[in-house]
Amino acid sequence: MVNRVLYVRLPCNPIFPIGVVYLADHLHKVFPDIEQRIFDLGTVPPLDFGSALDRCIDQFQPNLLVFSWRDIQIYAPVGGRGGNPLQNAFEFNYARNPLIKMRGAMGGLRMITTYVNELWQNTGLIKRGLKRAKRYCSDVKLVVGGGAVSVFYEQVASWMPKGTIVSVGEGEVLLEKLIRQESIASERCYVVGETEPRDRMIHEWPTTVEKSACDYSYIENIWPEFDYYLQENDFYIGVQTKRGCPHNCCYCVYTVVEGKQVRINPADEVVKEMRQLYERGIRNFWFTDAQFIPARRFIDDAVELLQKIVDSGMEDIHWAAYIRADNLTPELCDLMVKTGMNYFEIGITSGSQELIRKMRMGYNLRTVLQNCRDLKAAGFNDLVSVNYSFNVIDERPETIRQTLAYHRALEAIFGRDKVEPAIFFIGLQPHTHLETYAIENNILKEDYNPLAIYLPWVANKLLWNPEPLGSFFGEVCLQAFRQNPNDFGRTVMDILEDRLGLAPLEEALTAPVKSAQSPKKAELLVL
């Protein structure tokens, strides 16, 4: 019988482990008599990982061991754990100076070493934890899940001990069934060495779970390291207001991991959860939703939540989130400012309406621009990060000029110093439309290994920057790294404008649509 559950959060950057916290809270509400413990290796010095894990298992003696693995792939637009992946890759691939090319190669080698070491380290910790737990319970169950495992679930089987339950996406119902000793055959999971993952299993919809406010008094009791995240005032503590994303963006895995059905957490419960953290001194909150306002039909839910935050009297808080700015209204803008939003991210990817359509993002850029004006009029004077992923599908000099014009329009609204362009070159992920596109166009082989980034011929394809513009962007980014690495995004935009100029803004806001009657002609659909 399962009655002692230990959650081990594998080492990663110091980000509040909202996933394991919510899992433990949920199981406590369903099974109040079971014992649980959270052990966060993100708060432990690297040299102590193994010994600290041993001590925790010796003390707690679990019969269900749950490992949460957040990060596997190391692509990032800026400094990663082993260095700057973008800079290393671009110096190696595009630098003309052989010394710079060599520096990129050495930096890439260090990153690959870090990457391989982390894979060995984390798989070693999982095996070590299982072996240690078997000293006290010979039939201990092992579950491995988390963001990284959910994306690369097909690849991790070869690393895991036989009998490991590999969990995809949300794990509440899976853990409930394990505790009840019920069949888990219908859950999004498989057992290493016993069953195979179903075809397209990640695309199956997760089971809806009713969410109530996390009980942080209980979490404090089972998580000795909880205070680590309360020590510094600049930590943003995660709070989830909904799960799921209804969109179909070509490069994103949120839709398949969390499901397309958006499930709203009751506003009263969200505020109750925030209040518990507030009373513990927390003033900065990050709404961990895939998108805070994923579609217009959820505007009323956002209004209700923000109004209840206003009514709660928590006046000195700040919050941040990913936001689809095409779904803002003047009322929402006013409430965002009143409730202390001091940072948000817009993942528009491109400032060209044509490319927005081709990437299946569903944005209306004209609406985004007007809503940003409304937000500024409501009094928003803080930072907005705008994510641009150049050279994704059908990028051309014209569409680059359109993106530049759109970015300058955002700067005109908020101020240049308040708009931070985050320049991404997408790390291609499994289970996305972009992966399908790459396979259909012979960029990737169907049997490629998405984790084989230690092989240069694989890594260069997964860090998406194809020709004919790949070398051009490589040269621009290298120039930006030389000129001002501390303000890389703005420098890239300035260099691109110097080289290509700006399109008229109206051109960025319109998208050509081929006529069904005459494929050779195109008409402009003005949005």
From TrEMBL:
Pfam families per record: Radical_SAM
InterPro entries: BchE-like (IPR051198), Elp3/MiaA/NifB-like_rSAM (IPR006638), rSAM (IPR007197), rSAM_horseshoe (IPR023404), rSAM_sf (IPR058240), Slr0320-like (IPR054650)
Keyword match Iron-sulfur: yes
Top-level taxon of origin: Bacteria
Keyword Acetylation: no
Keywords tagged on the record: Iron, Iron-sulfur, Metal-binding, S-adenosyl-L-methionine
Family annotation (PROSITE patterns): RADICAL_SAM (PS51918)
One GO CC term on file: cytosol
Domain Radical SAM core: 229-466
Cofactor(s) the protein needs: [4Fe-4S] cluster
PANTHER family (UniProt xref): ANAEROBIC MAGNESIUM-PROTOPORPHYRIN IX MONOMETHYL ESTER CYCLASE-RELATED, SLR0320 PROTEIN
Listed name of the protein: B12-binding domain-containing radical SAM protein
